[in-house]
Amino acid sequence: MTDGARDESLFRMPNYPAWFGADTALLCGSAVHWIVISLMAYELSGSVTMAGWFSTARGVMSVITQVVGGAFVDRHDHRTLLLVQSGVCGLLWLTMGMLYATGRLTFTLFMVLCLSSSAVFGLLDGTSNAALITVVGPERYAQAESLNQGRDAAVRMSGSPLGATLFGLWNPAPFFASAFCDLVAFACSLTLSLPDRPEVRQAEHTVSSFVRDLVEGWRWVFASKTIVNAVIIMGLFEFGGFAMRQAINLQMVSSGVDALLISLINVISGVATLAGSLVSSRVCDRVPVGRGVIGILAFMALGYAPLVFSSAYGSVVLSSILTSLPMPLFGALVNGFVFSKTPVDRQGRTRAAVMTAIMFFGSGSGALAGELLPRIGFTGFVVAMMALVLCSVVLAALNPRIRAIPSSPHWAEVEL
């Protein structure tokens, strides 16, 4: 592809505006009601314990359905699945809003509707990303991923405050807003015109063939040494980074920092991520993936250094900015290479396998923070997690497969 074609706006591509609209609307629908769900669980159950178990149940449902969801996405038409996802979720949130507005929403109904939404999202969440490769092509996937990273940060940054504001004005409002967003996603999906996929028409729709495809997809993922190495490196980094974020929150809460100031850090991180995405979209095609990943990991590891010397609010803000700025470029390089090299008929299974493995690494980091902070203190915990994060940098630097991955114009010359 010529440099002129690469410089052309993605929104000039035939199907990209419709895809971007559908994907953004789905994300907005989730962001608007996200902060309200936990409040509702406590309000309807009257129990902190029940609300906690409810949150755990939603997470477990998403993980379970995500494991098989990748194979399901690969075996069906992506446009159809986007219509199903947006349509079903829109109906669920509309039902939730109507029941709440009429005083008929019980905790049992609330749980059934929320778990149903989690199941649909876990099963079909990879659809939009799987469709992206056919919309923009492998050559521009990294650029599209950069744009997505910034868009995601902006939506998450504004979604929670908007949801809380709507909830304060009228309690059912966030659910009607989510239903409206899903309706927009449905309308955008209707205008999509994706290439025909012969493997979808020829697929056997039996339980045995589904299991066979599921196993084959996971086997293919773990047969790729590059993907396995990348997952281990990213998993270590994610574990350390997520544990660090949990420790920061616990430290601030225990120190009596105002809740508004704590929430403001998320906004600052979102702004830094958005700024980073603007830079990433301009340079992601020119940065060699291997050396870029090593440099970014090292930069983010050192971004936690201010916390070694002080746990003051200013140090937390500075660290949040330093670790958020390079995230879009990191995502564009890693996701761009892995998923642009993944065949269309394996996109769903590859994404499900990678995300499940990374979630496995990060799942115990919150508990670790809670256990170790009282024993070794905040500074000791930061040093320990920085050491773990630096281990991921060393592993990446010593791995010839990772180190040798070139910039996107040369991805066709290397194997996944």
Key attributes of the depicted protein:
single chain; 416 residues; mainly alpha; Growth Hormone, Chain: A; 2 domains
How would you describe this structure to a colleague?
The protein has 416 residues and is mainly α. It has 2 domains: 1-192, Growth Hormone, Chain: A; 223-410, Growth Hormone, Chain: A, CATH 1.20.1250. 81% of the residues lie in helices and 0% in strands. The chain has 19 helices and no strands. The chain is globular. The two termini are 21 Å apart.
Question: What is the number of E strands?
Answer: 0
Helix content: over 70%
- Overall, the morphology is globular
Strand content: under 5%
Low-confidence stretches: none
Find the CATH topology of the largest domain: Growth Hormone, Chain: A
CATH class category label of the largest domain: Mainly Alpha
- Secondary-structure-based class equals mainly alpha
Biggest β-sheet strands, sense, barrel: none
- Output the helix-strand order: HHHHHHHHHHHHHHHHHHH
